[in-house]
Write a structure and sequence with these properties.
Layout: H1 40-44
C-alpha cells in the first residue's frame, strides 16, 4: 500500500517529494543525491490542489 501524499505538509522543505520514500532533504536515498524534489505547495502555492478541478470553466475546443 502506497503512502498518502500530504496536501499541506508543515515543513515541506525538510523532505524530498520525488518518490514514496519521502527522505529527509539532507539524506536522499534515490537518484544521484544532488537535488531534492520540491512539494507542489512550494512551487505553486497553497491552492495547488484546486488547479484544473473545474471542468465547467475550461475552454471548449474549437
Amino acid at each position: 500500500m502506497a503512502k498518502k501524499f500530504p496536501i499541506h505538509p508543515l515543513n515541506p522543505e525538510r523532505i524530498c517529494w520525488g518518490c514514496d520514500k519521502y527522505c529527509p532533504a539532507d539524506s536522499l536515498a534515490c537518484g544521484n543525491g544532488s537535488e531534492r524534489t520540491q512539494h507542489p505547495v512550494e512551487l505553486f502555492g497553497d491552492d495547488w490542489m484546486e488547479w484544473g478541478l473545474k471542468p465547467e470553466e475550461a475552454e471548449t475546443p474549437r
